[in-house]
Amino acid sequence: xxESIQPTELPYGIQAETRVRSPEFVMTGHHCHSCYELFYxxxxxxRFLIDDHIYDLHAGDMILVPPMALHYTRYLFGSCRRSxxxxxxxxxxxxxxxxxxxxxxxxxxTRIFQVPPEHRPAITDLxxxxxxxxxxxxxxxxxxxxxxxxxxxxxSGRWCSFAGSFxxxxxxxxxxxxxxxxxxxxxxxxxxxxxxxxxxxxxxxNYLSRKFRQAAGIGLHxxxxxxxxxHAAQELLSTRDSITSIALRCGFSDSNxxxxxxxxxxxxxxxxxxxMA
Length: 277
Known about the structure:
Radius of gyration: 19 Å
Largest sheet: 6 strands, antiparallel
Strand content: 15-25%
CATH superfamily of the largest domain: Regulatory protein AraC
């Protein structure tokens, strides 16, 4: 999947793929989409970093990634067979929203849910048929894929257990990395330094920087910038404040650097991003 997929890049609607990833596979970088992503771990384990959380996914785990959420996947524990489905909000019917936990609010945040072992074959088969249908471009393809996607969510709503919050079941040696990500999530609006973050988690700055990149696949400062951009993007949509005010409030001391960084991540300027919304 390419980085920052735009709705116009889904001309045939829902896209789905299933691949086996090995530890040798390394993503080119963190990315985000303007559409939803549903990620399913069919077998094996992987590490999923999304915004300021790090979560280890195991066989049967699904994670719903909302639009424009920064995310990255690492395959540190051996081969992992996973499926990725990209879709828009309009691909789901009102019945799906009504049947999910918290109804429409379910789709406003990252969600993690676990498919019980006895129901995994049915979910795997449904995703396989959705993936196979992705090869067709006839008049039947779009409505068939919508029906299968909606069936996937409805069966998940019936069978799955849903995490109320992000579990912290990552390996003990990486718990400080999770704490560092959480610290950044709480203090991104301040002029925080690597030394301050390292002090908060009990590591030296150099050791933390090395461990953070190894565990999360992104540099500590780069991650801080991405978190600031993520919150700035939310404020561009939810407030009428000036772009400079938002930049300063989200931890950027230089508005030009903010604009350049924003365009690099989202592909458009902050002003254009607000107009598009």
